[in-house]
Amino acid sequence: MDRTSPARRLVGAGVALAVGTGLCLLGTAGTAQAADVNVVKNAGFETGLSNWTCSAGSGSAVSSPVRTGAGALKATPAGMDNARCTQTLTVKPNATYTTSAWVQGGLTYLGASGTGTTDVSTWTPGGDWTKLSTTFTTGPNTTSVTVYTHGWYGTPAYHVDDVSVFGPDGGGGTDPDPVVPAVPGAPSVGTVTTSSVALSWSAVSGATGYHVYRDGAKVQSVSGSSATVTGLAADTAYQFQVSAANAAGESAKSAAVTGRTSKSTGNPGNPAVPKHALTGYWQNFNNGATVQKLRDVQAQYDIIAVSFADSTATPGQIVFNLDPAVGYGSVDEFKADVAAKKAAGKSVIISVGGEKGNVTINSDASATAFANSAWALMQEYGFSGVDIDLEHGINSTYLTKALRQLSAKAGSSMVLTMAPQTIDMQNTNTEYFKLALAVKDILTVVNMQYYNSGSMLGCDGKVYSQGSVDFLTALACIQLEGGLDASQVGLGVPASTRGAGSGYVDPSIVKNALDCLTRGTGCGAFKPSKTYPSLRGAMTWSTNWDATAGNAWSNAVGPHVHNLP
């Protein structure tokens, strides 16, 4: 908020005070003059439209664009309404006031009425932030004045920020001067590249800006609660802190957080997973498919996703409940099977979500609850990481925070996979796609579900029907060209006709799609403009349905994946 601090002073004969600094010449020789103030309340619209009235609901408080602080007025003329917004002020008689405001957008007027002398106004035809200013003197009996803004009929919306009517206090007082804001919480690390680290933090009340520190040195100042620090070295850890600031000063720096840039060579994701990997979901329940213990999962599978974790009454928190239906005599027997699979070079991870499961992660508290509980499961059961299979909507901002907190606990060995539905990865503006890109540096593979989907758009803008090689290749192309590394893309299909309601394809079609994407052979009508030899591989639901069909899927697709270039 752009509020001039009142200056306490004596005005003597022949002393001139500069109006340009927000001060005006008042009083006569030898007369003590009290400090001038800004008599406008909520001058920067930081508390919405409180103290303001706008005609016909034409005005609203917005967070962008703003000149300072977190709020500004947006008012939109419509029909015969010129979007007039007003505030009635308490003033002193026979006093001079300087009125100003910063405006942007369409044609905008600023004025004062009811002055008891000559009402005043000024205007600008519009454009970028411009300061309007005028001066009025109150009449001998005037104790209130209305300050107003308005646009003009048929013109675009206008924006107003940092309104000031500066002069003697008429008894109504002014908004309190700002105080130094509180210390922000430690920032969260977002997307990293070989040369940059994205940071975000919770906004601090009263702050009009923030300073970003890298290893103790201030490197950036921003008005919002996020920033990207650039010009960094690859594969290097940095300490980041933020402070909050306003006209009163700067807070102390936050607690430090470590952000590490990605390596300049090699593919992102976990190096412990084979270059080309087969992923299978293991069912912790009996739905008519072959019941397996983990030790029975076919050897072709490199990543085994235990399905599923359960949510609790605490938002974001997950637990794992071993289902007696799968035949384990004890939890320790299950843990021993996890350890045996890991000893054989497999990654056993805990999957979160599924068709009926849901975990709500939409706040800092729920993000922390997820990270803490997932880490506890990894420690207790020996899981190598997590799989995100949430099919009922996600909040990419907070799920990113959760996964980064978990990665900070688990380290670089954590396996992170995802299984979005086709609709979730149609473009980079979807929450799932934003999540995948935000955690790209710690992401192992996205195995999109190419089933239960119907027809969808491919990367060439054409519609393709599920069950074809074109459906697999043209939709994979969206991810491959949308920012994911080829090593982070896998093809997810059912293991049998009973594994999904629709979308089953013969293993030969899966092999053709893999060849098309990696070698440029076996394509259908759609042929990618280039090949992606490092494509991660394929996934199936589930190892149990595969076993029910005599392991036909893993016996055919597994060796093919492992022999990709």
Written account of the structure:
By secondary structure, the protein is α+β, with helices and mostly antiparallel strands. The protein is built from eight helices and 31 strands. The strands form seven sheets. The chain has an eight-stranded parallel β-barrel, surrounded by four helices. Strands 1, 3, 4, 6, 9 and 11 form a six-stranded antiparallel sheet that branches. Strand 26, helix 4 (431-438) and strand 27 (445-449) form a beta-alpha-beta unit. The two termini are 59 Å apart. 46% of the residues are buried. Mean pLDDT is 89; it is low at 1-33.
Count of DSSP E strands? 31
Radius of gyration: 31 Å
Largest sheet: 8 strands, parallel, barrel
Distance between the termini: 59 Å
The number of helices is 8
Overall mean pLDDT stands at 89
The structural class is alpha+beta
Shape: elongated
Helix percentage? 10-25%
- Estimate the strand proportion: 25-35%
Oligomer: single chain
Poorly predicted ranges: 1-33
| Widest beta sheet: strand line-up | 20-21-24-25-26-27-30-31
Layout of secondary structure:
Layout: E1 37-38, E2 53-54, E3 59-62, E4 72-75, E5 85-90, E6 96-105, E7 108-113, E8 120-124, E9 127-137, E10 144-150, E11 158-167, E12 188-192, E13 197-200, E14 209-214, E15 217-222, E16 226-229, E17 237-246, E18 249-250, E19 257-260, E20 277-283, E21 303-307, E22 310-311, E23 318-319, H1 331-343, E24 347-354, H2 364-381, E25 385-390, H3 396-410, E26 415-418, H4 431-438, E27 445-449, E28 456-457, E29 463-464, H5 469-481, E30 489-494, H6 507-519, E31 537-541, H7 543-548, H8 552-562
Helix pairs in contact: 2-3, 3-4, 5-6, 6-8
